[in-house]
Amino acid sequence: WICIYRPCFFLFLPGLAFCYSIINGPTNATVLAGSEARFNCTVSEGWVILIWLSNGNPVLSISSSQGPFETSGRFTSQNYTDSNGFTSELIIHNTQLSDSGKIECSVQQANSRFAFLSVQVNGSLAIKNSTLTVKENETIEIACEALGWAPAPDITWMTNDSFIDKSKYVTQHSQGSNGLHNALSILTLNLTDTEILTCLADIEALPSPQNATVTCIFVNST
User: Fold this and answer.
1) Are residues 100 and 162 in the same domain?
2) Quick one: signal sequence residues (predicted)?
3) Residue range of the domain that includes 104
4) How many folded domains does the chain comprise?
């Protein structure tokens, strides 16, 4: 019995011989807490038991003869069979920060494949005042506060449609509760005209940064 291009694993039963392997394993994923995370694992014909593990703990098993055995309602699967083999899609519902880590697909007597899940938390972002009156030659400080994020967000500032130089603001990070992070960014400027200032907070899982704005109304001395 010969298999080409990939390792073979044999299971001998009376009158039967199976050669099977993991063709494609799961890939890394980054998602927001509360959303779904999905991982695929494709195995060749002949497999008997496929087990999904999260951080070393079995969360779902699939038998080739009896189908899936679920240990938690948050971990379910969808299965597909085609000419490439059998594909198990692990679905993690309502992802939590504690789900972050190693996701592993294991087939009996075959090498396992793994990927990493990063669950991130989109916290709050706020500037205390929505409008400010700024006088000529007045130096202003505007504070933007981000609370309850994971990981700590990347903070940037914009004026109208342009990014403000990083030398104009200072951002301090602090550890919050339950593994979450806080950030306080203080922008210092001298304005010569009315401007809309925007504070942006970004993490990888966000499709676009969260933002908070303040309108600074410039009043000259005349």
Assistant:
1) no
2) 1-19
3) 22-120
4) 2
- How is residue 174 written in tokens? 């602090």
- pLDDT (tens digit per residue) in 151-162: 999 999 999 889
Q: Which residues contact 72 (CB under 8 A, 6 or more apart)?
A: 59
DSSP letters along 123-167, please? -EEEES-SEEEEETT-EEEEEEEEEEEBSPPEEEEEETTEEPPGG
The residues near 209 (Cβ < 8 Å, ≥ 6 apart) are: 156, 200, 201, 202
Mean pLDDT for the stretch of residues 99-126: 93
Higher pLDDT, residue 115 or 8: 115
Whether the predicted pLDDT of 9 surpasses 70: no
Which position has the token pair 């993991």? Answer: 22
Biggest CA pair distance of the chain = 99
The pLDDT score that the predictor gives to residue 95 is 97
Q: Which residue type occupies 45?
A: E
Examine the domain organization and report whether 92 and 181 are in the same domain: no
Considering the domain architecture, whether residues 113 and 53 belong to the same structural domain is answered as yes
